[in-house]
Hints:
With about 190 residues, the protein is mainly alpha-helical. It has helices spanning about 1-60, 75-85, 85-95, 105-115, 120-140, 145-155, 160-175, and strands at about 145, 180-185, 185-190. It has a 3-stranded antiparallel beta sheet with strand order 1-3-2.
Amino acid sequence: MVSATGAAHNIEVTAESLQEDLARLELQKQSLERELAAVVAHLGSVQRALSALDVLMSAPSAPLLPSGGSEPEPAGRAAVQSPAEPAPKAAADAARAPGGRRPQGQVTKRRSRASGTGSQPDQRSYGRLTEQILEYFAGVGDKDVRARDVAAALGRDTDSGSINAVRSTLDRLVGASRVRRSGRGLYRAERP
């Protein structure tokens, strides 16, 4: 009888231990899912930034074209420039290719994948965090706050991933001059 009671006790202890592990693992899973969502949002912002930079990198070739001044060009001069226009663009593209940039066709493919319909819900939730942070700064006035305080005020202080998402968004807002970094780890609303 003693061995049966001991075995039952061992099973009970094991079951309790497994229940505790299950609860801990469920919390860890939720935490990791939130952290993954923050990483996906950050990835989306980096992809959008790269797309914007690609557009800016290809934009400097546009000022090479003559500006639309008030004087019309003579027909002979326009005929001379017309065949020459593709050559500077081709030369610029050829100069960029050896520098490590991808050919334009590959960049376009990457851009179209990144801007697919599947990323639209992420953009809405990502923009929502930005708007929540800006609303928070409008409410606190001219006061220094920490990223952790902002995350707590927004209910996003449950794990390090959520706090890091707030911190990353604050850093983006600093880069966009919408929020000012007032010290190490401190942020303040940018006043016009």
